[in-house]
């Protein structure tokens, strides 16, 4: 009798209860592609304060990265560097490309603390940069080549 008064809701409650535990969205998400990881680690459209900016980088590996450089430019502009002439990378591969111009950057160096309380020095710079580039993976922007490593 009581089930009749509730209409279709008992069935809905039964179905919802049978789903089991709910997992956080991040537990099922795919890891970032190499180009997406490059953007997380190295792209910032303006100057950064390293203690804040490195939190996002360090959260992925749950450790204090010893050093990191943020390029003050867009991913699109850095990807355009991939269309410039090839040069040899530090690891001997031939998929690196040097920027045509100097750009603003922020260099971060770990000065102390352990994850998640990593501390960094912040050093503004204005330099050329070199990136390693590969063809895009599924989920990357549709550029001919995308940056995957700051050399």
UniProtKB/TrEMBL annotation:
SUPFAM superfamilies named in the record: RNase A-like
Stretch forming the signal peptide: 1-29
Statement: the UniProt record of this protein carries the keyword Nuclease: yes
InterPro entries: RNaseA, RNaseA-like_dom_sf, RNaseA_AS, RNaseA_domain
Broad class of the protein's primary localization: cytoplasm
Protein name: Ribonuclease A family member k6
Stretches assigned to the Ribonuclease A-domain domain: 31-151
Transferase as UniProt keyword: no
PROSITE patterns per record: RNASE_PANCREATIC
Source superkingdom: Eukaryota
Gene assigned in the entry: RNASE6
Organism per entry: Mustela putorius furo (European domestic ferret)
Keywords: Antibiotic, Antimicrobial, Disulfide bond, Endonuclease, Glycoprotein, Hydrolase, Lysosome, Nuclease, Secreted, Signal
GO biological process, one term: defense response to virus
Organismal lineage: Eukaryota, Metazoa, Chordata, Craniata, Vertebrata
One Gene Ontology molecular-function label: endonuclease activity
SMART domains, A to Z: RNAse_Pc (SM00092)
Coiled-coil positions: none
Subunit structure: Interacts (via N-terminus) with bacterial lipopolysaccharide (LPS).
Gene Ontology cellular component annotations, sorted alphabetically: cytoplasmic vesicle; extracellular space; lysosome
Cell location: Cytoplasmic granule; Lysosome; Secreted
Similarity remark: Belongs to the pancreatic ribonuclease family.
